[in-house]
Amino acid sequence: MASILFHIIFFCLILRTTTASGSSFNQNYEPYFGLDHFKLIQGGQDEAQLTLDQNGGAGFRSKAEYQSGRFHIRMKIPRQKTRGIIPNFYLISREESGIHTELDFEFLGTTGDLQTNMFANDLGGREQHFHLWFDPSEDFHSYSILWNQHQVVFLVDNIPITVYKNNSAMGAKFPSEPLHIEATIWNGTWVGNVDWSVSPFTTSYRNFEITGCQADNANPEKCASPEFKWNAEDQWDLTPQQKQKLENIRKKYMYYDYCNQPNAKSKYPECAVSRS
Ligand SMILES: *[C@@H]1O[C@H](CO)[C@@H](O)[C@H](O)[C@H]1NC(C)=O
Ligand SMILES: *[C@@H]1O[C@H](CO)[C@@H](O)[C@H](O)[C@H]1NC(C)=O
């Protein structure tokens, strides 16, 4: 009897610690537009849902600003097939900063096309397009952005798909200012026409823990510290295995690359050198 009771108490303790260590949505994030199109389902694992219909979309953002990290979310895009909508997850600078920096995961409609892009110091146009090897509307998958002083890496289910190295020595811009996380759903004709007959469209998000270094004006060097595991030397470059995977992804699943466009090499110095 005592042993059963012990096990029950022990089990409850384990449950408590697990819920306490998994961050809740409200701890790190807040909705910021389209509140009537935002829904939070709280439980052992919080889930936030953003819905788009003809009246508009919605978005949430992190409460804090960061200057390095390995940012991560699990997301499942709307299951109805349409073009013209952009479910997403990205890092962005504050408008008041006057500098436009952005690290983007953007779905181009819901048929499995994904765009990565980077704006650094107002210069964007670094798009790469992939047709994913799975249907992102069927299940949750993980989308991560590693950002340290040496590289920005976009990973899908921990497989690198896009790398921007810090080529500032060659004159290429690289993000340095504080960024926060945003996730939104909106529509735009640049990705085609929406089939509103199958709306509303809902993206679901899970996993609201943020593994990043919070920006600190009083200590601007803080986020470059090698004490953070995403800044450690083994994160300065992809491993040989990761490079192999990236090569494979580019060959098999990438169907548009800004570096292959006319004059790309003069506008983007990184297009002239190895990009992994
Ligand atoms: C990029 O690398 C240069 C060294 O080549 C370094 O001085 C700079 O701080 C790095 N930029 C960022 C934003 O980390
Ligand atoms: C999104 O769709 C709505 C409804 O059709 C339309 O009024 C709006 O202009 C669209 N927004 C953009 C950015 O295309």
UniProtKB/TrEMBL annotation:
One of its GO terms (molecular function) is xyloglucan:xyloglucosyl transferase activity. InterPro entries: Beta-glucanase-like, Beta-glucanase/XTH, Beta_glucanase, ConA-like_dom_sf, XET_C, XTH. GO terms for cellular component: apoplast. PROSITE patterns: GH16_2. Pfam families: Glyco_hydro_16, XET_C. The keyword Signal applies. It is found in: Secreted, Cell wall; Secreted, Extracellular space, Apoplast. Belongs to the glycosyl hydrolase 16 family. GO terms for biological process: cell wall biogenesis; cell wall organization; xyloglucan metabolic process. The active site is at E102 (nucleophile), E106 (proton donor), E106 (nucleophile). Residues 1-20 form the signal peptide. The keyword Secreted applies. Keywords: Apoplast, Cell wall, Cell wall biogenesis/degradation, Disulfide bond, Glycosidase, Hydrolase, Secreted, Signal, Transferase. Residues 23-205 form the GH16 domain. This is Xyloglucan endotransglucosylase/hydrolase. It is an enzyme of class 2 (transferase). Catalyzes xyloglucan endohydrolysis (XEH) and/or endotransglycosylation (XET). Cleaves and religates xyloglucan polymers, an essential constituent of the primary cell wall, and thereby participates in cell wall construction of growing tissues. Contains at least one intrachain disulfide bond essential for its enzymatic activity. Its EC number is 2.4.1.207. Its main location: secreted.
